[in-house]
Write a structure and sequence with these properties.
Layout (H helix, E strand, L loop, with lengths): L1 H10 L10 H10 L9 H22 L7 H10 L6 H14 L2 H13 L6 H13 L3 H9 L6 H13 L3 H14 L5 H14 L2 H14 L5 H13 L3 H10 L5 H13 L3 H10 L5 H13 L3 H12 L7 H14 L2 H11 L10 H10 L3 H10 L5 H13 L3 H13 L6 H14 L2 H13 L7 H13 L3 H9 L7 H13 L3 H14 L5 H12 L3 H13 L8 E6 L2 E6 L8 H15 L1
Antiparallel strand pairs: 1-2
Helix pairs in contact: 3-4, 3-5, 5-6, 5-7, 6-7, 7-8, 7-9, 8-9, 9-10, 9-11, 10-11, 11-12, 11-13, 13-14, 13-15, 14-15, 15-16, 15-17, 16-17, 17-18, 17-19, 18-19, 19-20, 19-21, 21-22, 21-23, 22-23, 23-24, 23-25, 24-25, 25-26, 25-27, 26-27, 27-28, 27-29, 28-29, 29-30, 29-31, 30-31, 31-32
Length: 595
């Protein structure tokens, strides 16, 4: 970078920096020597430093520092005899932050020390911010420690730096030091340290900070109250969060929304709904929190009902609203509702294609893979998320080879996959029976893409090997996993043992499933079927008898259908549907007609 700057310096036209040249200043001064009101040499020097600073500042604002590096402007100004001031260094460091130029920043740091500006709190704050933005917390702390008497602003910057880099312990220790040296923190410092206690997750520390706030006599603003509610929630105590919420006399919308958010985060939907209904004034964030909260716990009908209520209110749904609602439609299989939301989206909320990945996911999960493909092909945003959505959608519908074609196109476009993409790719290989490609992609995860396989990826490989009859290889893979296999992996392997009549491995697998969940009868049922297929009827009947004696029951199967925008669910032997009699009567008529 330094060599590039020197090369660019020699290439620059002389006129670019001609206004900075001292002889020109001298000429102006001589020409106006008879005029007592003419600007002095110092006036021109100040004006040129101002222009110098402005050029550097514009580089920071534009963010394009590759064509004209800001350090180049700085060096040129020094060579024309200008002396930097505090603003010069502040603008220069801000420009360097945009380009993540750490080496150049260290050179500027050395220049700050040489010119005597290291004692300036504002320049030191800019240096501290530069190092923090690049992840060098040690150098930032060194800048802070070298200040003989740091002011409150610098204390807050250092505490915020620790919080931003998720080092809450260090932030809280620095806050204790503030109190020992007699510096009175303001509300910004208090809010920052409250956030640090939330990151730490220590309820005792959170209560200590709360006690300090109450005793300090400092005026507590709404943003500190909402931060404290959030902190209690993050520390696992919804009770303390709600108690403090009730103690607040004047609650603004942010405080209400924070309490609703924490209620939903703790899966207390009743409290969240009660607060939402009691709000004197709602905003879009209030509606979004409730819709997302219901969707996250699987109550998709309630989430969609809230969305329709929001439509007839004075608030217009935004992108976050639609993301949560599309997720609810996808999980609930509500194709008609999802398609209606898609038409709503098309108006002006998806001009940049930011909702395309959610739309692809929704159509895929609701069964309309053709529409999902159409959205992907027409999308202006071919990023990781849209590509992963279409690969997983095609895999879900059994189009494994087509999914792999999209993955090949993804690699050709230089878009690196993530863990979710690789789950879709490996599942596609399993559904298409492509064992060699599956092995190759699994091995390439760490070697090519730098992704450490997780349990989901091992599960896909076990499924692929099991489907293709490679039971010994699948079993060895399970036993060699760096983590314990779960019920899903063992269940998939047991199904393959039944298909390929491998009694020995079936018995081992059934025992593993019983260890993981003794109350689940599925493993016993599968092993009983394996025994029956091998004509080992005494063992098969013994397992059936054990299931009956222990009163073990499988979870009932469930199916659903969407009619006029509403999704109706049906369980095995379930007669709770309000139209149960009419449905049975219609089915009997259909059965008679078919016979």
């Amino acid at each position: 970078m330094r060599a590039c700057i020197q090369q660019r310096f020699h290439q620059l036209p002389h006129t670019r920096f001609s206004f900075l040249h001292p002889p020109r200043i001298h000429a102006y001064t001589v020409a106006n020597v008879e005029n007592p009101f003419a600007p002095s040499r110092e006036d021109y020097a100040y004006a040129n430093v101002f222009l110098w600073n402005t050029m550097i500042r514009k580089q920071a604002e534009n963010g394009d520092i590759t064509r004209d590096p800001p350090l180049l402007y700085y060096i040129q100004g020094l060579r024309t005899g200008l002396r930097p001031n505090g603003q010069t260094f502040m603008y220069l460091l801000k420009a360097l932050v945009c380009g993540k130029n750490v080496n150049e920043g260290e050179e500027v740091h050395a220049s700050v020390v040489r010119t005597g500006f290291a004692s300036s709190e504002f320049v030191s704050g800019a240096l501290l911010g530069f190092y923090v933005a690049n992840g060098f917390i040690g150098q930032a702390r060194q800048v802070f420690d070298e200040m003989p008497q740091p002011g409150l602003v610098l204390w807050i910057l250092m505490i915020r730096a620790y919080v931003c880099l998720t080092l809450p312990g260090e932030a809280l220790e620095l806050f204790r030091t503030i109190r020992r040296v007699g510096v009175m923190p303001d509300m910004v410092a208090v809010a920052t340290v409250v956030s640090a206690s939330g990151l730490l997750g220590d309820l005792g520390v959170a209560k200590t900070i709360h006690c300090f706030i109450e005793k300090s006599g400092v005026e507590v603003y709404a943003f500190v109250r909402s931060t404290l509610i959030n902190t209690y929630g993050e520390c696992g105590s919804l009770t303390d969060a709600y108690r403090f919420f009730q103690e607040i006399a004047m609650k603004n919308t942010v405080v209400w929304n924070t309490m609703i958010h924490q209620s939903l985060e703790h899966n207390n939907l009743d409290l969240g709904k009660q607060l939402f209904d009691s709000m004197p004034e709602r905003d879009v964030a209030s509606w979004n929190s409730m819709i997302r909260g219901f969707a996250n716990v699987g109550q998709y009908e309630e989430a969609l009902a809230l969305f329709h209520d929001m439509e007839i209110s004075v608030f217009r749904p935004n992108t976050l609203t639609l993301l949560s609602t599309l997720s609810a439609c996808a999980s609930h299989g509500a194709l008609e509702a999802g398609a209606w939301i898609h038409s709503y989206v098309n108006i002006d909320l998806n001009q940049d294609g930011s909702l395309d990945s959610s739309l692809i996911d929704m159509y895929s999960k609701c069964g309309d893979i053709a529409k999902a493909i159409q959205i992907f092909e027409e999308s202006p945003r071919r990023d990781l998320f849209t590509r992963t959505s279409i690969i997983c959608g095609l895999e879900m519908h059994g189009h494994g080879k087509k999914a792999l074609c999209y993955f090949f196109e993804m690699k050709e476009s230089q878009v690196s996959p993530d863990e979710a993409t690789m789950v879709g790719v490996l599942s596609a290989c399993a559904h298409a029976g492509l064992i060699e490609q599956g092995r190759r992609y699994f091995q390439s995860m760490e070697k090519v893409f730098g992704l450490v396989p997780k349990i989901e990826h091992y599960g896909c490989m076990v499924d692929l090997l099991s489907r293709m009859g490679c039971l010994k290889e699948a079993y060895d893979l399970i036993m060699g996993m760096p983590m314990e296999a779960n019920e899903i992996i063992w269940g998939s392997f047991l199904s393959a043992c039944r298909v390929y009549n491998n009694v020995e491995l079936g018995e081992v697998t059934a025992r593993r499933l019983l260890e993981l969940d003794p109350s689940d009868p599925w493993g016993r049922v599968m092993l009983s079927n394996i025994y029956a297929k091998e004509a080992k009827y005494d063992r098969s009947m013994g397992l059936r008898k054990e299931i009956k004696e222990k009163g073990l029951k499988k979870s009932p199967g469930c199916s659903s259908i969407e009619v006029n925008g509403s999704v109706h669910g049906f369980l095995v032997e379930d007669n709770s549907h309000p139209c149960y009699n009419e449905i049975n009567s219609t089915l009997e008529k259909i059965e008679k007609l078919m016979n």
